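hey
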């Protein structure tokens, strides 16, 4: 296996603090993400992990701190602006269109890439509708590539809501990949999965990282998975950072052990 080449810092989180009324969700959190790495965020329930992802992708606006993406610093961005910059997100609770087919769900991930609607282009230029149709065909071709990549060809026309949970999570990953993100935020991609489904998802995450070159930030509770697939790990506890480093560094960190891993580990 080739040695993976980690690049320069692509995402830089600096001194982020987030409060809801008098409750502190995050306190002075700083860490960075390097291009082409798998960066895990771990911690007990209520540690602030999902809140951190929500700050990165514009769902929450932190009261203090800043986030830089490829050297461009932003304090207040909405989710669409963040997505247009090249950051995609999956959610812990699936937000798929359950009545729509797999391929149609994945096509919704291409929305940011669609330059113009068929109807709009036809009104502006009746002779230009062929270009719009060609564009749609290109989007569909890209989505078909993702379907092959995620090995869900047999389910492409199936309504997502009828699929087993593990396959729905795979479709959710596919929809995020359809956006062609530079950074992919995964919120508990293995939650609720059995061992075989976790192994499949781990393989897909590593393949996305390797073959697409996508930088990945993931929240995950399964420590075996985290230690196996992550390049670096940041540890949160009660909204504060208590560890940051390689899986080996984190595994040996006494504060992390007492807060999260348990002394038996």
């Amino acid at each position: 296996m080739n040695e993976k080449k980690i690049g320069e810092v692509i995402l830089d989180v600096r001194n982020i603090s987030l409060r809801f009324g008098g409750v502190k969700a995050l306190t002075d959190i700083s860490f960075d993400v390097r291009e082409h790495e798998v960066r895990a965020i771990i911690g007990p329930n209520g540690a602030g992990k999902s809140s951190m992802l929500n700050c990165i992708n514009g769902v929450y606006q932190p009261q203090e701190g800043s986030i830089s993406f490829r050297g461009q610093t932003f304090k207040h961005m909405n989710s669409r602006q963040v997505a247009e910059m090249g950051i995609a997100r999956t959610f812990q609770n699936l937000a798929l269109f359950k009545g729509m087919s797999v391929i149609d769900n994945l096509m919704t991930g291409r929305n940011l890439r669609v330059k113009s609607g068929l109807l709009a282009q036809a009104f502006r230029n009746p002779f230009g509708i062929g270009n719009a149709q060609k564009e749609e065909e290109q989007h569909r071709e890209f989505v078909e590539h993702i379907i092959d990549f995620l090995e869900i060809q047999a389910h492409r026309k199936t309504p997502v809501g009828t699929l087993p949970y593990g396959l729905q999570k795979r479709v959710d990953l596919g929809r995020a990949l359809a956006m062609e993100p530079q950074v992919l935020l995964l919120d508990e991609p293995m939650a609720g999965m059995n061992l075989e489904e976790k192994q499949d998802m781990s393989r897909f995450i590593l393949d996305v990282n390797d073959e697409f070159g996508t930088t990945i930030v993931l929240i995950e509770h399964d420590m075996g998975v985290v230690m196996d697939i992550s390049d670096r790990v940041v540890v949160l506890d009660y909204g504060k950072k208590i560890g940051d480093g390689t899986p080996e560094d984190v595994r040996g960190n006494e504060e992390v052990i007492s807060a999260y891993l348990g002394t038996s580990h």
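The domain at 1-86+182-265 is CATH 3.40.50.300 (Rossmann fold). Residues 26 and 239 are 4 Å apart (CA to CA).
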